Request: fold
Amino acid sequence: MLQNQQQPKKILLNEAGRQNMRVAGQFNAQLMDYVRSIVRPGVTTGKIDKLIHQYTLDHGHIPATLGYQGYNHSCCTSLNDVICHGIPDDTELREGDIVNIDVTTIVKGWYGDQSETFMIGKVSDRARGVTQCAFDCLFAGIDALFPGCTVSVIGDAIVKEATRRGYSVVREYVGHGLGTKFHQPPNVPHFPDRKSRQEKILPGTCFTIEPMINSGTRFTRLDKRDGWTVRTRDKQLSAQFEHTILMTENGPEILTTTKNGPQKGHKF
Ligand code: MF3
Ligand code: CO
Ligand code: CO
Reply:
């Protein structure tokens, strides 16, 4: 989400709320495994969107992005130099592409949110490298978490990992709290800033980590024609992975782990 969006007050979930978020996260992950089965060369991003829409409704749930602030699709499909919020259309996926597919579902009023970058067929070393870095940055952020930590441990870990490997971290779009709303406090920047150094992640906090990693500079450009698509300013590649996380008394719990997708430590 956009960094400076206004937000209501922060929310700590009790056991019932946590259980609802687990159920929502599990369905969203099941949807991501379905996405995995349909992503291949030749399929259009619009077709992927239609299938996500149908799968979600068939299971009795609601695509959260549909109608969200005027957005009219059931997912975001961000191809190559698109950082985030790519709009599904008649573009066919081609061998060598990388595409981030971001799905968010409302399950009985509770939100699950996650994304993965998919490599289409054989891709360049550059494309593989930025995908691997975004994946490892997500887990660097998760591994830094502990009950009562500050939000900034996430950004510290991610910037350190990305910089060490020669990649840059997008700043304009950040992770976010979620629960019965799509976006709520805390703001979760993938770089440390003043507010994140003060804000604590207490048990019962539910939020996303969703680093956008660029192979060139960190700078972004919003498409003026559609008002959504965010691209790298230098037209180089960008990749992203996202999980929904619940902080518990015993540490972080990933709510959107897939059955068939890459797990922590995966080598692409
Ligand atoms: N799923 C995105 C996120 O991770 C938000 C997409 S909002 C949309 O925060 F309107 F662009 F779909
Ligand atoms: Co999100
Ligand atoms: Co998302």
About this structure: The chain is about 30% helix and 25% strand. The helical segments are 15-38, 45-58, 125-143, 152-164, 194-198. The longest helix spans residues 15-38. The longest strand covers residues 98-107.
